[in-house]
Amino acid sequence: MKRNLLILSVALLALFGLSAFTTDDDPFAALLKKLEEYTKKYPQEKIYLHLDKPYYAIGDNIWFKAYVVDTKTSEPSTISNILYVELINERDSIKKQIKLPMQSGITWGDFKLTDSLGEGNYRIRAYTQWMRNAGPDFFFDKTIKIGNSWANKVFTKTKDVLSTENNAEKVSSTIQFTDKDNKPYAACEVAYEVQLSARSIAKGKATTNSNGEIVIGYTNAQPGLYKSGKITATITLPNKQKIVKNIPIKTTAKGTDVQFFPEGGGLVEGLPSKVAIKAVNANGLGENVQGAVVDNDGTELLKFETTYLGMGSFILSPIAGKTYTAKIKLADGTEKSTVLPKAASSGYVMAVNNVDTGKMAIKVMMTEDLVNKGELRLVAQHNGNVYFTTKLPTARQLVSVSAPKAEFPSGIVQLTLFTPDNQPVCERLAFVNNPSDKIEVNALNLKPSYDKRGNVDFNFSVSHEAKPVQGSFSVSVTNASTVTPDLDNESNILTRLLLTADLTGYVEKPNHYFLNNDTKTRTELDNLLLTQGWRKISWKSLMNNQEPAMTYQPEKTMKISGIITKGGKPVPNGKVSLFSSSGGLFAVDTLSDANGRFNFDKISFGDSTKFVVQARTDKNNKNVQIDLDIVPGQIVTPNKNTGDIEVNVNESLMPYLTESGRYFDEQSKRGLLDRTIMLDEVKIVEKKNPAPNSSNLNGAGHADQVFTEKDLETAFSLSQFLSGRIAGVTVSNGKAYMMRSGGLNGRTPMAIVLDGMNMGDDFDLDNIVVQDVESVEVLKSIANTAIYGMNGGSGVLVITSKRGGANTSYNRYAPGIVTYAPKGFYAVREFYSPKYNTNQDSKPDLRTTVYWNPQVVSDPSGKANINYFNTDQSGTFRIVIEGIDNLGNLARKVYTYTVN
């Protein structure tokens, strides 16, 4: 990518270059230097996830590849080496979280959508720990629809009717309940609860009519406070089975919010300004409006209308002493008035014409009192990199600047105008789409058509500025006849990394701005940037040397660290041991430093790995306290993509659900897909498991004797409690011994397994605080101890700690020991692609994702190969290739072919 400073042509003025203010005593040059140092010290990251499909069904797998880039360089990030990806349901609850290692900003993973999940509007959220400092506004956070037909007995269809009465919003929701064949569930009892913003506002019961419908009426008396929520409906089927359905309420309001945004920040008397409009309805979607601007005398000055997704603009020249009001006519015919921002009597206006493909035309206007008051500065920067800056004399009220776009990288450019005393007064965004920093992708031998189960074997070449490049690419192939592409809103590497990753708030149909490069689309994109919040660098904070609070450090490696204290004071030179028996024996030692701190770094482990940390003083005193460094989890903020929420998910995805259901049924017949939900209720009288959370290798509760939390309520210590309570076992000095051979001398104590960890011979029962114990399982018989091998030869005590509290992975035992089950790396699965040249399987192939490869690497000549087999279905097959090279140049290419 090019990093050269622009050569600016200044209309009506002599040229003033950067060299005009690079002297050491120039405070503005010092400010730009601070910007450079700040962005170097506090780099940012942004993430894109390439998904194999735009939507899914229960039973599917979500396959994804993550691209993480450094915003300053646009290159694959080396800031962080660990990525978190989460699947979040409509109730803002994390249903799945995986932790992935990254190398040069690249990683990939998957989510299996088991039938323990229901249909709904889910979110895929991805971030690094370092990104948490900037806040969740800049996480990858995409709403995806997940339908459920294969493991679903009840389908709902909801229609809301809104009305207003005495300033309260009234809603009438008609919910229809049907089976998979669209037959209504008639005469069934339904219990329901309506919640708005997590507050219950209505409860009741109803019986479905002959069409399987109930009608729920409720009132939102505080529409400004409570705007969205859900209906939880529990229907009792004819076989007495109860099915719970969660139905989103997008909004209870009918209003449309209309806002006006003067270009550059404010209106100024006597200076013409562009004013952008954004109208958003209660569902979060743009809604076109029209209207007129009138002054305080009632004189109509101009008419306006929005042209795309509720956005548009008009030009207004405020007059001194006048105020202005917008009279707005909404889509439903109602009218409202909004007072426009008050114009300042003195100031500057910056106007940018960004519609031209070749250049940005920038005009700076000022009121007469600011003429000849010193030189202005104009700066354009992209993610902290300054691409041009110039002095603008104030001899006249108008200054024009022309900046060629070819010298800018693709993405958002932030333009800032500074006063002679270096105060920022005008600021706005502009977008540059530069073809020179895109990777060109060419399919070399892709045929226009193939047969069913035909072998698709083709090469593609990648180049940048006519030179081959090596890069990392991901490839997804779907049958567009089954998986209809969502062109305006599907996952897109260009849209994400060049546009939405730097914007705050919801962006409706973001891909629209990249589908065409005509004047109309560029104007629509410019209106978006005039009305959207963005990732800002605070110039005033730079001037005042205010540095941000960085709570989270970049994760380079996994580590387990903490501090040892005794009597509240740090323990220097203490011996700290870390060991695990998960997946094989692991043990390592270290010493605490002068401040009592210890660190086991550069370790790597999979998910569900359990560790024990033991500590002693340098004199082997174990009466110390260990406090591990625990990074709190990221909270789940409400879904910002409200416009993408679909009330009737299953109905909107029904064609796909029908096709995917056939595939899942076939997979189930072949034993490749299991149902985990009993679709018909079976009443089973089962004894409650006394140790439900146990890690007993025989299975939780399978023991010769079990003591529960209730049994231990009055116990002083474990050794005191167990003494005399286990036949054939004696307890001495904190250890339990089986008496099969008589006597204790030379005997091996019973093994203690705490939360799945074998604690070793040095561990005493009384090292455990009895109030922290949920269950103790005694394994004495060979049938129960054999699975533990040599460790079970003298019997086993399986002890399970309580699982209370938010952080269940960290349990402290006094003295000098803690068990810890941190989040480990996810074991990534491989996409299955059949090879019909070697395996002539006669069973139908109904895959909805035909091919997925997250890591296709081009060779030094810029070539890569793709090889897979089609399914048994005909249609138009769609290949999406996306990727990045080591300089941060991006690639996206879509190809199609037919299968007959």
TrEMBL record:
Coiled coil: none annotated. SUPFAM superfamilies: Cna protein B-type domain (SSF49478), Porins (SSF56935). InterPro entries: Plug_dom, Plug_dom_sf. Residues 1-22 form the signal peptide. Keywords: Receptor, Signal. Residues 705-796 form the TonB-dependent receptor plug domain. Pfam families: Plug. This is TonB-dependent receptor plug domain-containing protein. It comes from Pedobacter albus. The lineage of its organism: Bacteria, Pseudomonadati, Bacteroidota, Sphingobacteriia, Sphingobacteriales.
